[in-house]
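Q: Please design a sequence for this.
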């Protein structure tokens, strides 16, 4: 099979094509969910596309206008614009893969779009709805409740959420979409023809099974599969577990329901659509590079062909945890486009086994803080050497900052680093990634603050907080701090002494190469504590490194969620790139 980036009607997407001999007459168009759900399910839908293609079905998945890699509309997005995008996706897939029929797949909020598109076309062969949002009003209510949980988990005050808009994980739903959802639900009246329908129903959401019953009553042949693993899929982008069994069952249902007929002579497939989108001051092209385990990304360039003042600088954005290349709150997309308006190109891409990029054979499923991302970054720079050469600045947050730090040390093509809220400079192989993911962004001071908060005692009494978890988090911090404090006295006797020596060696090497080492830390983030472990109180030890600097971002969480903090980080990055000397 082959996956290629495409662009159509202002939307970015990917088409996954089966081997030519196995290609059938029916294709699958995937309508995503939105917001935090979209961030958690990017990899799930990529795995689904691969499984479908293995059965002979070409698959197109895309981003709605105003989301991830697609362009923002000049007018406000609404459900009509998102449905029009799904319609254009159906036409695009038919042309690209020589399909005659399409099956429309909708996940979460995408189920509303899928059902609408199915009613407007006469070439739809079937409908698949996974964890369908039957009521737009219910979706808005549940999103608001979940947003509060996420904000609390990030350590932000409740007023960090905009009171007049629907927002979650730093993403705001356009007013047009929100207004339409308040009066919209899935239509279960009879369709023009009795399309086969598959519903992946959540056990904890009775409305899923009720929707299946209503479709059945309207004359549709309906199959219901349990959406086992839904909660683990949606828990968090970094903790998300892809339900492979469900994927296989959906693919088997499609194979049995829409048998591929290859007996009729088919015309030659049309050329694939353009990969490039043109926006306000930028162009973006979907790219794929590396033959083995290809990496997917977006190359963003200034729209003007005139030489830019900073045309030799190229920014490279890296994944944070398992957030896809768009970034938390779409931060990498927005920053890349802002840089392009300043004349600076950039690449944002997914590392192996993250987002749109498949796993590399022989690599572990858990790729964070391993050698895999560092090799991927080297391959990305190889691609840029041919496509957009220059002096490279690696930009990463959290685990992405770790990967940037080590890749920048090993690769002399890197001239600058932008390291945001790095949780680790040196990785301890004995450390649990799960523990780091669950409590890493919180410094000891944050635990102290929470323990003195009366609300915390109420939640402890109510059993909403795990005392064991709190004590475990505190103990990890305390042991780490004590061990690092003893490291200078016993530099070779403990692993922390060796970590300290390795960290300072990397800093010396980078400083000798005159690599700009720029740190941006949220004002209450554990990244500040990490720097203190290696460089002392108030980071005084950094003073010996001429090319290292630390800036503090106020009123921000580890993920940089509030809109003012997002703007602050974007401005910091734009200032940083434009003032970094060219190689």
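A: Design:
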């Amino acid at each position: 099979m082959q996956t290629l980036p495409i662009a159509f009607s202002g939307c970015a997407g990917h088409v996954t094509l089966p081997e030519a001999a196995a290609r059938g007459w029916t294709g699958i168009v995937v309508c995503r969910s939105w917001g935090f759900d979209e961030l958690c399910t990017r990899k799930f839908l990529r795995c689904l596309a691969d499984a479908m293609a293995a059965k002979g079905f070409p698959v197109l998945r895309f981003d709605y206008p105003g989301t991830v890699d697609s362009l923002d509309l000049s007018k406000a997005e609404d459900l009509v614009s998102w449905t029009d995008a799904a319609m254009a996706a159906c036409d695009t897939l038919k042309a690209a893969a020589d399909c005659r029929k399409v099956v429309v797949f909708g996940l979460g909020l995408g189920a509303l779009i899928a059902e609408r598109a199915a009613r407007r076309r006469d070439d739809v062969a079937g409908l698949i709805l996974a964890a369908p949002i039957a009521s737009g009003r219910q979706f808005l209510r549940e999103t608001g409740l979940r947003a509060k949980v996420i904000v609390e988990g990030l350590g932000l005050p409740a007023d960090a959420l905009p009171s007049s808009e629907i927002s979650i994980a730093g993403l705001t739903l356009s007013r047009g979409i929100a207004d339409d959802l308040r009066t919209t639900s899935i239509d279960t009246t009879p369709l023009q023809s009795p399309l086969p329908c598959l519903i992946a129903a959540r056990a904890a959401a009775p409305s899923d099974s009720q929707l299946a019953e209503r479709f059945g009553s309207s004359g549709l042949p309906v199959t219901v599969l349990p959406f086992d693993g839904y909660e683990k899929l949606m828990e968090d982008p970094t903790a998300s577990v892809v339900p492979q069994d469900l994927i296989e069952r959906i693919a088997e249902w499609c194979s049995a329901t829409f048998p591929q007929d290859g007996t009729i002579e088919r015309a030659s497939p049309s050329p694939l659509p353009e990969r490039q989108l043109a926006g306000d001051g930028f162009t973006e092209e979907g790219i794929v590079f590396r033959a083995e385990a290809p990496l997917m990304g977006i190359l963003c360039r200034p729209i003007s062909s005139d030489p830019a003042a900073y045309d030799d600088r190229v920014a490279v954005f890296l994944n944070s945890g398992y957030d896809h290349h768009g970034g938390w709150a779409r931060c990498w997309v927005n920053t890349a486009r802002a840089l392009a308006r300043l004349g600076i190109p950039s690449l944002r891409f997914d590392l192996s086994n993250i987002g749109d990029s498949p796993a590399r054979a022989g690599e572990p499923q858990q790729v964070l803080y391993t050698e895999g991302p560092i090799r991927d970054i080297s391959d990305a720079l190889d691609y840029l050497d041919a496509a957009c050469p220059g002096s490279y600045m690696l930009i990463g947050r959290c685990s992405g900052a770790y990967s940037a730090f080590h890749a920048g040390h090993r690769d002399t093509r890197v001239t600058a680093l932008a390291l945001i809220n790095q949780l680790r400079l040196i990785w301890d192989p004995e450390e649990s990634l799960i523990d780091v993911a669950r409590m890493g962004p919180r410094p000891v001071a944050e635990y102290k603050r929470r323990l003195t908060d009366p609300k915390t005692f109420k939640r402890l009494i109510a059993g909403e907080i795990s005392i064991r978890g709190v004590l475990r988090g505190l103990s990890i911090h305390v042991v780490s701090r004590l061990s690092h404090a003893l490291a200078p006295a016993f530099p070779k006797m403990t692993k922390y002494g060796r970590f300290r020596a390795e960290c300072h060696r990397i800093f010396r090497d980078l400083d000798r190469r005159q690599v700009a080492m720029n740190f941006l830390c949220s004002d209450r983030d554990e990244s500040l504590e990490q720097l203190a472990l290696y460089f002392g109180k108030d980071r005084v030890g950094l003073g010996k490194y001429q090319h290292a600097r630390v800036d503090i971002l106020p009123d921000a969480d580890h993920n940089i969620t509030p809109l003012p903090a997002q703007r602050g980080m974007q401005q910091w990055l734009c200032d940083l790139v434009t003032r970094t000397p060219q190689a």
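Q: Thanks. Anything notable?
A: The first helix runs from residue 36 to 54. Residues 77 and 176 are 6 Å apart (CA to CA).
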